[in-house]
Amino acid sequence: MKVEFFGQLAELAGAASLDVSDVDSVVALKKWLGEKYPSMSAIGYMVAVNKKMAEGDISLSAEDHIALMPPFSGG
Amino acid sequence: MKQDPTYIRYQRQTILPGWGDVAQHKLLSASVLVIGAGGLGCPVLQYLAAAGVGCIGIADGDLVSLTNLHRQVLFGMEDIGKPKASTAALKLKALNPNIGYKVFDEDITSENAINMMRGFHLVVDGSDNFATRYLVNDACVLLQIPLVFGAISQFEGQVTVFNVPCGEEGHCIQYRDMFPQPPAAGEVLNCAEAGVIGVLPGIIGSLMANEAIKLLSGVGKSLSGSLLTYHALTNQMNTWQLHKRSDSDALVPKTVSDFQNTNYQWLCGIRENVLELDKEQVEEKINKESIQLIDVRGLQEYPELPHWDHIRIPMEDIFSGVELPRSDAFIFVCQSGKRSLQVATWYLEKYEGPTKAFSLKGGIASLI
User: Which of A56, B72, B176, B313 could bond to B68 as cystine, CB 3.0-4.6 Å?
Assistant: First the structure.
């Protein structure tokens, strides 16, 4: 599945998006990202699945498009 | 009638299909409070004043600096060192003297927010830190005031509208539906730390002004229920459907008094900056608030703390769990300010609650 990163998350991932396999839920994806990029876990980002914000654990399939959005504070 | 200067001023938008005198009249009868007259606040203020919003409130406790000018386009060289809110109001009066302005040359805090916001139909948040963003969100939820939200980071921006019923179920989305709790201090950088391209707040601020004008005039469809994101380097613009979380409303203080007792700086992990007070700040706090001063030195240490009423509880006793008297806030003092800072930091880490803790900077040595 395609995972797109916004803001600081793209910097931490070193890419605007990644192809991720072997995860089947939002919780598993967050865990996988937290292990690969430990500093990501400290940022409470929002997860969108197919352009809809997701709450809690949602199962994911290979066709899903995931976007991860951190909060911005600047003004 | 058609030669009326008011009519002429707004003529180009009044003739728009679906606008007319009705929408213009709604704008002229509306009031908006803009939090922050910075990168986002400047374009928001300019377009709202130009469009004829009847009363515009401007809240900002900051002064104009040279590093602001690449993006805060209301200001010029002659404004450096001047208060942003009243300077912005002067510029806006030159643009449109026929509307009202309410100037707050002070930062919004949990103490002044409710009074500041009351009476405004809409709030626009163009602030630059999480403590203010959560504070403004919570106040707007409590007072049920629609909130136009915009925020930026480096090359990217976010815009949405909160507290306006959306979707089939008519839920009101708020900031805590997106991000229930503030991030840890330092995890997400602000403009001063991470940088920002000057034109970005111009774009995001204009989108915010557009949302405000749609909400107030009743024309068009607002972003309520959707988050719009924009990337300046790729021109990628997306909208994301937001979702009402089951736990978000419970995170907002229940009453005005709970809200006023919430330390948003603390919630956002800001410790060092607010923790240390100098002599004048201590004096000011003692006069305004119910505060307990505690000398944390050993009981044999002298000289006695001069001027202020206080009690003595040695640091070791506090650390071993001696009960402190009830108070809205503590100011800890010691000889040099080091031990008292340690105690204040420890206190805040240990006791999660509304009680604030401060330390006298430089200690008793600074008073003598």
Answer: B72
Q: How far apart are CA B362 and CA B366, in angstroms?
A: 5
A51 in reach of chain B (CB within 8 A)? yes
Task: Please state, in angstroms and rounded to a whole number, the distance separating the CA atoms of residues B10 and B54.
Answer: 13
CB contact under 8 A, A51 and B130: no
Q: Where along chain B do its domains lie? A: 5-267, 275-366
**Chain segment B6-45, per-residue pLDDT in tens:** 889 999 999 999 999 999 999 999 999 999 999 999 999 9
Closest-CA residue of B relative to A45 is B179
> Which stretches of A1-75 are DSSP H helices?
8-13, 26-36
Question: Which of 3.40.50.720, 1.10.630.10, 1.10.1740.10, 3.60.15.10 would CATH assign to domain B5-267?
Answer: 3.40.50.720
**Separation between Cα atoms, residue B133 and residue B129, nearest integer Å:** 6
Q: Whose structure tokens read 């607010």? A: B274
pLDDT, one tens digit per residue, over B263-320 is: 898 777 665 544 789 998 899 888 888 899 999 998 988 888 988 999 999 988 998 8
Site from B179, B190, B267, B268 to mutate, A interface, most A CB atoms within 10 angstroms: B179
Please give the CATH number for the structural domain made up of B275-366: 3.40.250.10
If one counts every other C-beta atom within 10 angstroms of the C-beta of residue B110, the result is 21
